[in-house]
Design brief:
heterodimer; A: 2 domains; 67% helix; B: alpha/beta; Oxidized Rhodanese, domain 1; 2 domains
Chain lengths: 129, 275
């Protein structure tokens, strides 16, 4: 009943809209702060904005980007990508750990995170130089 | 309008084909591309460099001359991200009157997975052929005034962004902070029709029957005209391609999209699940 009243009352709708807008802004701010914090932490580790990753690590990410598109790669293909670049099952687990993990699993598929896409951008930019 | 990898593979080296790769990350082209493919950079080649707009007739003429798009030749577009930007390029070329255009189904992703040939050798740019670019068509593009009129006239508005963007839970998807509008939400009356209902997990576009069923399940009337929009007009170009080119629905792409609508003073905005 209270929820129905809230839905129908113009003031309540306005309040809901304002809260949603505020929530969006907070989420944007949090993601910006997280990104800045990650960069600062990486800098404190003494390796610049991003830790240097081995070539084969980055090629794994490239393969996920190339073969997975927007929907990522299925489990079997993920294992094949890892094997192609010399990673065993345990080694592949490292791609999913930490606050800046480059990959995530969603419904059995492996997708790039924003951090993963940033690593790819850095790798591609390096090829330019 | 759609071709598969085998079709294109058999025709590599065919002088009548102009192959263009259009990626969200244009540098991926440098890792290897379909032999003979030109790289179109969506930031540099498919937009006006100053104004937020499509390139003008002169810029398109230069681009077509560069890739050798002479009369009688056919362009095949492909790219990363399930052909988002390839579809945008297709829409843009169609807007300027190009008729012989194709999309490689599944884009770069499908070509790579099928282990078809890639090269790092870049094609010679063609600078001599004279190219006449027709005037821009008016029936394929919608501006914000067209969208306002559409709301009043009951023309279908199709919001092809993620459900979270549609509801107004987020201003933009993670990783695209530069594309955020001032306000979250959707255009009042717009249906939520995420672009990816038209593709399988491999990035290929579904068969016509499945497309019709999925569009119908989202409330899309395939007998009525429509306007598609997303955040900056590239995902909506994908849905435009599906509706206009594959299903024959009279469709316009609102390339100003949410970054424009959600940032303009006084524009009506809806929040939540409902249109």
């Amino acid at each position: 009943m209270a929820a129905d009243r809230a839905r129908s009352h113009p003031d309540a709708q306005h309040a809901l809209a304002a809260i949603r807008t505020e929530l969006s802004r907070v989420r944007s701010s949090v993601s910006r702060i997280e990104r800045d914090l990650n960069e600062l932490e990486a800098g404190e580790r003494g390796s610049g904005a991003q830790r240097r990753r081995p070539e084969r690590y980055l090629r794994v990410l490239i393969d996920v980007y190339e073969r997975g598109g927007r929907h990522g790669v299925a489990g079997e293909e993920w294992a094949a990508i890892g094997a192609r670049h010399g990673y065993d099952r345990r080694g592949l687990g490292g791609f999913f750990t930490g606050a800046n993990a480059p990959l995530r699993r969603i419904e059995g598929r492996v997708l790039l995170t924003v951090s993963g896409e940033q690593l790819i951008d850095g790798y591609l930019a390096g090829l330019q130089r | 309008m759609l071709v598969d990898g085998a079709w294109l593979h058999d025709r590599l080296g065919d002088d009548e084909l102009v192959i263009c790769e259009v990626d969200e990350r244009p540098l991926i082209y440098r890792l290897g591309h379909i032999p003979g493919a030109h790289c179109l950079d969506w930031r540099l080649d498919l937009q006006d460099p100053v104004t937020r707009d499509v390139p003008d007739q002169e810029a398109i003429s230069r681009l077509w001359r560069r890739i050798g798009l002479a009369p009688g030749r056919t362009v095949v577009f492909y790219g990363d991200k399930s052909n988002w930007y390839a579809c945008f390029a297709f829409w843009l070329f169609r807007l300027y009157g190009a008729t012989r255009l194709l999309i490689l189904d599944g884009g770069r992703q499908a070509w790579v997975r099928e282990q078809r040939p890639l090269t790092r050798e870049e094609p010679v740019e063609n600078a001599s052929t004279e190219v006449r670019v027709p005037r821009r068509r008016r029936d394929l593009r919608a501006g914000w005034r067209d969208v306002q009129a559409a709301i009043a006239d009951g023309v279908q508005l199709l919001d092809v962004r993620t459900p979270a963007e549609y509801r107004g839970d987020v201003l933009t998807e993670a990783g695209y902070p530069e594309e955020a509008a001032q306000r979250p939400g959707h255009i009042p009356g717009a249906l939520s029709v995420p672009w990816d209902i038209a593709v399988g997990e491999d990035g290929r576009i579904l068969a016509d029957e499945a497309l019709r069923a999925r569009m119908a399940s989202r409330g899309v009337d395939l007998a009525a005209p429509a306007i598609t929009y997303c955040r900056i007009g590239e995902r909506s170009a994908h849905t435009w391609f599906v509706l206009h080119e594959l299903l024959g629905v009279r469709t316009r792409n609102y390339d100003g999209s949410w970054t424009e609508w959600g940032s303009m003073i006084g524009m009506p905005v809806s929040l939540g699940e409902r249109p």
